[in-house]
Amino acid sequence: MSKYLIKRILLAILSVFVILLITFFAMNAVPGGPFNSEKATTPAVRAVLMERFNLDKPVWQQFLIYIRNLTRFDFGVSLKTGREISGTLSTCFAVSAKIGGIAAFVAVIIGVILGAIAALFRNRWPDRLIIFFTTLFTAMPSFVFATLLLMVFCIQLGLLPVFSTEASASKYVLPVIALAAYPTAYITRLTKTSMLDALSQDYIRTARAKGVTTRKVIFKHALRNALIPVITYVGPMLAYILTGSLVVENIFNIGGLGKQFVQSITNRDYPMIMATTIFLAVIMVLMNLLSDIMYKVVDPRIKLD
Amino acid sequence: MADLNKNKSGVPLLQVIDLHTSFTTDNGEVQAVNGVSFTLEEGKTLGIVGESGSGKSVTAYSIMQILEKNGHISQGKILYKGEDITHYSEKQMQDFRGKKCSIIFQDPMTSLNPVYTIGNQISEAILIHSNKTKEQAKEATIRMLELVGINDPQKRFKQYPHELSGGMRQRIMIAMALVSEPDILIADEPTTALDVTIQAQILELMQELQQKLNMAIIIVTHDLGVIAQMADEIVVMYGGRICERGTADHIFYSPAHEYTKGLLRSIPSVENMKQKLVPIAGTPINLLNMPKGCAFCARCDNAMKICLEEVPPELKMPDGHYASCWMNVKNNNYVSEVSANE
Amino acid sequence: MDTAPNKNPLSLQIDVSRFEKATDEEKRQQDVMSESTTFFKDGMRKLMKNPLAVGSIVVLVLIILTIIIAPLVVPYSYSDIIKVNGKRDKSAKNLAPFEYSKQEQKFIDEGGKVFPHIMGTDSMCRDYFIRVVEGTKISLTVGLFASILVLIIGVLYGSISGYMGGKVDLIMMRIVDIIYSLPDMLIIILLSVVLNETLAQSNSKIIQSLGTNMVSIFVVFGLLYWVGMARLVRGEILKIKSNEYILAAQAVGAPSGRIIRTHIIPNCISVIIITTALQIPSAIFTESFLSFVGMGVKAPMPSLGSLANAAREGLQSYPMQLVFPAVTIVLIVLAFNLLGDGLRDAFDPKLRR
User: Across residues B162-169, what is the average pLDDT?
Assistant: First the structure.
C-alpha cells in the first residue's frame, strides 16, 4: 500500500511539473504571450511584465521565479481586467465546484442505480431502455445537449429559468443535468458491466448456496464488489465535469472557472489562460490521485501489498 | 415445511430419479445431465466420479438449484426425505440451502467474497437459518472455526479471505457449510485446487466432521484416489449419463463398464506399479454433439457396432451393482434390465 | 461371438452382427466435432448477427455515400452565397427547409428551375444542406486521420516498449503514465492557442490550406491521444510474448522482425481495430468541442461542431440549424460506438461476456 501510495504521489507531482513546464514554455512560445515583452500593448504593461517575470534573466531562472510565485498562489494580474488572478480564480472556483459537485453526486447515485437495474434485468425491457438512453447520451457532445436543454426547457416551454444572478435552486437544475448526463451514462454502463461480472463470480454461487436471499445476494455480495471499478472512474469523471463546465457554464451563463477560461481564450488573456489551465489541471491530477487511493482503500485485497 | 424435519423411517435421505438438466446456449440446448439416478443414505458418503464435462458438477448444482441462469432441470425428481424439491419455490430453496444441504466448491480462492471478513461471511450463514443474535452468531462462528481446525479463530474472524492460504480457505468454506448442521454436505472437487499434503488434511477433516455431525456426503471428483478414501457408494458418470454405480468394492474390484475399467487402468496403484499405465485415448466428448449410441463409444477400445447406434440400458450385475455397457449383454453377464424410473 | 445373448428381460431383439467390434473408421465418425471455422469467418458471422452493428454499418455507408454524391448533385457551394440566375441572392437568408427566397420564387414563376434547399439556408445565405454535408466530410476526415495518427504512434510506441521490455519498457511506460494523467482537453486548448499563434506566422502552404486550427488538432492528437493505444498494444504484446509459441519461435531462431510480423501483429490486430473504431468518435468529439471554444476549423470551412456552435446564436428563431448538425454528430458517433462494441463482441473473445 505505502509503496503504491508513494509511487502514485510521485507520479502526481511529476504530472503537475510537466503541466507547469508545458504551460510555461507554451506561453513563452506564443507571440504576444505573457513572457513576450515585444508585443506588450503599452509600456506600462511591459514594465509590469519585465518586473514580474524578470524577462532579462535566462529562461530557466524565469521558470523558477514563475514556480516560486505559483507556490504563493500568485498568478499575476489579468491583461484584460488588471485584477489579481488569484482572487478571480477563487470566486469562480466556488461557483464551479458547487455545480460540479452536485453533478458528480447525481451522476454517481443515478448511474449506480440504473446500472444495477440494467444488470438485473439483463436483456429485458428495463435493460434495453436504459442502455438505449445511455448509448444516446454518450454519443452527444455536451454543448449540443446543453443547448438542446436550453432550447426545450427555457425557450420553448419556459419551464425553468435560464441561469441568472438571482439565487434559487431551480437555476442549478439545467446546468447540473447537462454536466451529469455523460458521467451518468458512463457510470450506468460501467456499473452494469461490473455488476454482471460480479454476479458471475464463484462467491455469488457460494452466497446462494448458503441460502442468502436473492435481494441480499445482489445488494450485499454483488453490488459492493461491482462498485470498486466505479470508484476508479470518479477521478476521470471530475475531470470530465470540470472540462464540461467550459461548455455548460458558457451556455447557461454561469460565472465559473469554465466561463472564465473560455473568455480568457477569446480575449487572448495569456496570464489568465495560464493560471486557469494550471489551476484546473492541478485539481484534476489531485482528483485522480484521490480516486486511485480510494480504490485501494475500498478493495481489501490490495491493503497488504 | 415442518414435515421436512421429521425423518420418515425407510425413506432414503436423498433420492435423485432420472434427473435431466439442460442449458440454453447460443448454439442450442445442451443436455448436461441426461437421466441420472442415485440414492444417498443418511450418514453415508456417495462419490460421483467423472472427467470434466461428464455432468458431475451440474448434478450437484441441480440438487442445490444453484445452476447458472440459462440452466434448468428439465425432467426427473429429487426427493429429500421423500419430498420432491424440484418444484420448491425460490423461498423454500433458500431454506433448504445451507440448512438441509450445503455445498463446498473446487476453488476456495474465488469462492469467498473478497470484500467481507471471514467472520462476516460465516455469521451470515448462521443468521439466515436461526434466530441467533449477532453476538451468539459470532460465538457459534468461532466455535465452528475451532472445529474445522483453524488456529486463533478470534483473529481469523476479522481477517479477509485473501489473508489466508488455500487450505485455510477451504476449511473456512467447510465451516461455513456446516454451521447450520445440514444433513447433506456436497463437496464439489473439494481438494482439486489444493496441494497434495493439504488435500489429505481436508479429506480427513471432512470424515471427522461426518462422524461428529452425522451427515451424509456427496463428493464430486475426478480423482479416484479421493473416492477410494472417502466413498461408500460410487457413481461413475460420462457424457451426462451414469456408466456404472455400486459400492466402492464393486467399482474398484469388479468394474463392469469399459469406461470404469479404463479409468482404473489409468491410475497408478500398488498392484499395477510395475505395469505400464494405460491412458484413455481421445478427448472428452462435446456435449453439443452427443453421439447417437453410448457416449463413450468413440474412445472405447472394445466398441461394437451396437455401441455406436444405441444407448446401452442400465443392467443389474450378478453381484448387485449397476452398469450401462453393451459388453455385458454380449458376454451375457447381467441379471436384469433396469427401467429408468427404477 | 458365438454366445448370442438371449436373456429376456432385455426388451431388445438381439442381433449378433451388431455385437461385432466396430472399426476405427466407424468410431471416428462418432467423434463428431463442431464445424470448424476460421477466426475471421466466425467473427464476421457474429458481427452480421448483431443488428446494432449491421445498422451502424448501414448508417455509415449511407453517410459516406451522401458525402460523395451530394456535392455532385446539389448545385451550391458550401462557401458561397446562393446565386439565382448568376446573381447573388441576398434575400435567401435563414430559409426554412425547402423554402425558396423571393428572388428564387420569382425565378421559378418565370419558369426557371431552382434546386430545393433541403435543410434551408444559414444566416449568410448559404445552402445549409451542402454545408452540413461538407461539415460531415471534414469532421469524418479529421476523425479518421487523427485516429490513423494515433494508431501509428500508439502501435509503434507500444510494440517497441512491449517487445524490448526491461528498462526501456519501464522508462517508456512512465512517460505514458505522465501523459495519461495530464488533463487532455486543457492541454489541447492550451496547445491550440499557442500553435494557432505560431502557425499563423508560418507561410507553409499545407498549413494555410488546412487552417492552423486543423493542424493544431492533429499535432495535439499526435502528442497526447496515442497513450491509450500504446498501453493496450503493449499489454497485448506482453501477454503474447509469454505464450509458448513465441518462445518456440525464438528457440528456432526466428528473427525479431519476423516474430513481430507473423505472430504478434496478427494477434493484437483485433484490439487495434476496435480501439481505432472507438477513437474516431472521440476525435470528432474533440474537434466539435474545440469548435465550441472557437478553436475549430477555419471559416468558411464548416465542421459539424462549428456548424452547431454557429447555430446557437440564432437558436430562438432557427432551431433547425442546430438540430441538423447535432443529429449528424450523434448519428456518426453512435454508429462508430456501436460498431466498435459489435467488433469487440465479435472479434475479441477475451472481452466477450
Answer: 88
Do A101 and A65 lie in one domain? The reply is no
Q: For testing the chain A interface, which of B112, B115, B120 should be mutated: the one with the most A CBs within 10 Å?
A: B115
Q: Which residue has the higher pLDDT, B26 or B46?
A: B46
Average pLDDT value for residue range C220-247 = 80
Question: Are both A182 and A220 inside the same structural domain?
Answer: yes
Same domain, A111 and A191: yes
Shared domain for A101 and A216, answered yes or no, is yes
Chains that touch B (3 or more CB pairs under 8 A): A, C
Q: What is the ipTM of this complex?
A: 0.84
CB atoms C183 and A265 under 8 Å: no
What is the domain range of residue A12? 2-70
What number is the average pLDDT over the span A224-229? 88
pLDDT at B70: 86
Per-residue pLDDT tens for B86-103?
999 989 999 999 899 999
The chain B residue lying nearest C15, using CA atoms, is: B306
Please indicate if any CB of chain A lies within 8 Å of the CB of B146: no
For residue range C286-339, list pLDDT tens digits in order: 888 888 777 777 767 888 888 888 887 777 778 888 888 888 989 999 999 888
> Domain boundary residue among A16, A40, A70?
A70
- How is the beta sheet containing B14-25 ordered, strand by strand? B28-40, B14-25, B71-80, B83-84
Q: What is the CATH number of the domain that holds A124?
A: 1.10.3720.10
Contact residues on chain A for B105, CB-CB shorter than 8 A = 202, 205-206
| CA–CA min distance B194, chain A (Å) | 17
Average model confidence (pLDDT) for chain B? 86
Residue C55 pLDDT grade (very low, low, confident, very high; cuts 50, 70, 90): very high
Mean of all residue pLDDT scores within chain C:
78
HSE, side-chain direction, 13 A CA sphere, residue B78: 20
The answer to whether A299 faces chain B, any CB pair under 8 Å, is yes
Report residue C189 as a C-alpha cell. Answer: 486548448
Q: Subunits that touch chain A (at least 3 Cβ pairs < 8 angstroms)?
A: B, C
> Tell me: the pLDDT tens digits for B13-24?
999 999 999 998
Task: Give CA separation, B324 vs A151, B239, C112, in Å.
Answer: 76, 13, 91
Please state the rounded mean pLDDT for residues C124-133. 85
Whole-prediction pTM: 0.81
Residues A64 and A197 in one domain: no
More confident residue, C2 or A243: A243
Are A95 and A62 members of one domain?
Answer: no
Q: Do A107 and A147 fall within a single domain? A: yes
User: Does residue A18 sit within a domain?
Assistant: yes
Distance from the Cα of residue A284 to its chain's centroid: 6
Residue A165 sits in the same domain as residue A21: no
Residue A52 belongs to a domain: yes
Strand partners, B24: B29
Residue A76: inside a domain: no
Does any CB of chain A come closer than 8 Å to the CB of residue C320?
A: no
- Chain C positions touching B334 (Cβ under 8 A) are 7
pLDDT in tens, C178-198: 888 777 777 778 777 777 777
**Domains held by chain A: number:** 2
Q: Give dist(CA C177, CA C350) in Å, integer.
A: 24
Question: Is residue A13 one of the residues assigned to a domain?
Answer: yes
